[in-house]
Amino acid sequence: MRIVKIIGITLAAGTTLAACEKDAAPVTVPSDYQKELQTQLITAKAGDVITIPAGVHSINRGLSLDVSGVTIRGAGMDESILSFKGQIQGAEGLLVTASDFTIEDLAIEDTAGDGLKINEGRNIVIRRVRTEWTNGPDEKNGAYGIYPVQTENVLLEESIAIAASDAGIYVGQSRNVIVRNNRVERNVAGIEIENTFSADVYGNVANENTGGILVFNMPDLPQPGHSTRVFQNTVIGNNTDNFGAEGTPVASVPAGSGIVINSNDKVEIFDNDIADNDTANIIISSYYATGFQGTRAVVANYDPYPETIYIYNNRLSGGGSSPDGLDLKALRIALFGLGGSLPDILWDGFVNTDKLDAQGNHLAEYAICVDNGDAEILNADLPNGSSDIVIGAAQHQCRHEKLPAVVLAAPLG
Amino acid sequence: MFIAVCAVLAACEPSPRSTVVHPVDAVPEVLSEWRVVFADGDRFRLNDRVVPYDLNTPLFSDYALKLRTIWLPDGGAAVYNDSRELDFPIGTIISKTFHYEKSAQWSEHRFAVVKADRESSLNASGHLDLNDYVLVETRLLVRYESGWQAFPYVWNATQDEAFLEVAGEQINIELVDALGSETIAYIVPDTNQCGGCHTPDHSSRQLRPLGPKAWQLNREYSWWGDPVSQLHHWVATGLLQPFDSTPPRGSRWSEPGDDSLEQRAKAYLDSNCAHCHNAAGAADTSALHLDIGAAVDRHYGVCKTPVAVGRGSGDRPYDIYPGRPDDSILVYRMQHSDPAIAMPELGRGSVHVEGVRLIRDWVSGMNGEC
Hints:
The structure holds two protein chains of two kinds.
Chain A lengths: L2 E4 L2 E4 L19 H11 L6 E3 L3 E4 L2 E5 L5 E3 L6 E4 L5 E8 L4 E9 L4 E19 L13 E12 L2 E3 L4 E6 L2 E6 L2 E3 L3 E6 L2 E6 L2 E3 L3 E6 L9 E6 L2 E3 L20 E6 L2 E6 L2 E3 L4 E6 L21 E6 L2 E3 L8 H11 L8 E3 L20 E4 L5 E3 L10 E3 L21
Parallel strand pairs in A: 3-6, 4-7, 5-8, 6-9, 7-9, 8-10, 9-10, 10-11, 10-12, 11-13, 11-14, 12-15, 13-16, 14-17, 15-18, 16-19, 17-20, 19-22, 20-23, 21-24, 22-25, 23-26, 24-27, 25-28, 26-29, 28-30
Antiparallel strand pairs in A: 1-2, 30-31
Chain B lengths: L5 H4 L27 E3 L3 E4 L4 E3 L11 E7 L21 E9 L10 E3 L13 E2 L3 E12 L2 E9 L6 E3 L4 E9 L2 E9 L2 H7 L16 H4 L2 E2 L6 E2 H7 L24 H13 L55 H7 L17 H13 L5
Parallel strand pairs in B: 6-11
Antiparallel strand pairs in B: 1-2, 2-7, 3-4, 4-5, 5-8, 8-9, 9-10, 11-12, 13-14
């Protein structure tokens, strides 16, 4: 049985996985174009533009590029399609380990693992790239659609990511990143910003995922993250059942999550349209609430508490009417009646006791500040077994200094 | 550096003639021009001064047998190192020839080979008999002034030449054992994929040999005579400069011998995983470090939750769950050959049954809770 846990609340999701799934995919045959493209990628020199012609091109093994200064350009997201259906080798469709890289106007479909992965690089532009599993949400889909990790100075825009079994767009362990005007739908996580410094996420449409936009920090990694602004996005109806594999961070995300902050600091959420996310429009939680950390202490330098959070001027509506998880369902009915809804913002209530004032509230610097009209926050008080659930906004009426906009450095800036 | 002048003369004189280091911008299309290894359809053999060697715990590659050789230019000798690969002089050529033993079902039209986990060995006269074996590919690693370069050559059907294939190749083969047969896509890596493993320091983008490290070479090997210690033989024959230190223990993954289960497991995980899974490797994004020198702690996977594992988690919570191999992601990924799940990512069209057994046994015997 797969168990989905959210802020201490357990839901048996009812998915039984066979002990050992059948691997043996039929052995497919490579196309002539595959070898041509591979050769272009291998022999590329800085300054080259590799053109992907219009058409559907079958590729059955992972492609890779390790030369900096190369552009890959198709004829459009619906015209130039690299189809990896029947992929027999490679953990991703296209793996890029290079800098000064631009990819635009093409689609990567049905990869066995991740769609586009960029591992270590600077000055990366991803523009009008579509990654999609054409069969729709399925736990057998690859994990990430567009996946820059350990990158710096990144512009990811006007792209589309559909039906990834983890995150459609996943930016990990990076710095100085703009993710804008993308469309992400029917993924487990629409957009996930993880262990990243200085990210601006705006103008995106994140609808019909399990969780719309996530800002996470995971333990044990070389780089913790902070300073993310999430603004002017549309985040509506992210109620798709969680189809991620347990053990992945996103498996802890309940269906019906709009924007989720987990263990990350200095996060600003403002001017978004967030609606009809059935668990909550906004969730703020700690690593301790994800249910998979085990009993061993996390590494000493990991900060599992979300701190210095600032939520303001969002347009919030609907939401909280049908939360994922039996305990949340019960909580909703107990507190708000059969027809009632949970508040717009849920917080698990975990705090670092070293950062509290005499009254037990966050020191101003670390507070969770909500300045968002009549939006209320529910503190589930999980550290104390939910013995003192608090609903309201009074304790969160504060403001933080606003984060600066991310400015891309030359040559992208 | 040598220039390929001998091509002109080759016709006049039978081999062997000396091995040639071709310039990096004039790499020959055919393997024979390097004059490292040769095959004529009947026999596969090495040129003079090309020395075969073996490793204690090699990387698994779809049950292929591997014949490794090294050739150093005149007067060159490697410098010993305890932990990194030996430091080889410019002009060094390392070769690795992937081959299989033909099965009883083998025919011209049926690539059916023996699925057996064993080491390659030359026969008493220093050859491979191509009645019994089929050559698949020979990969070269060549040390230039600018660093190492990798070149994959694929053998032809007549087994008398191998051709450079920078984009790699796919060969569908049948692995046959007593239990039956399975058809897999054997993938010759493209030259970028060579770097997928041979770049243990991912940020440097520098290719390096992975096998010839002191602990891997510290074993006996017998060719054309009595078993001798490889490292001592290399010193005695001038391949390696004399060194003072005691080389690290050469743990054999496949043989209990004097090694503990943990030593064998760590040797196996080093060879198969640590080229990416080390603190500077391509997989440092996962913070899982499996190099042989690493402590068996959280970063080694013990009670470690995954970061970006996707379906590779198999709904399991930790990379290594002590005492519970069926709840350990590491074991799950080894048990599968689906590219979304399989680890390592390359050379794994099949599951390494014996490797899985080793790691399962080790995890089963571990104590502790998460």
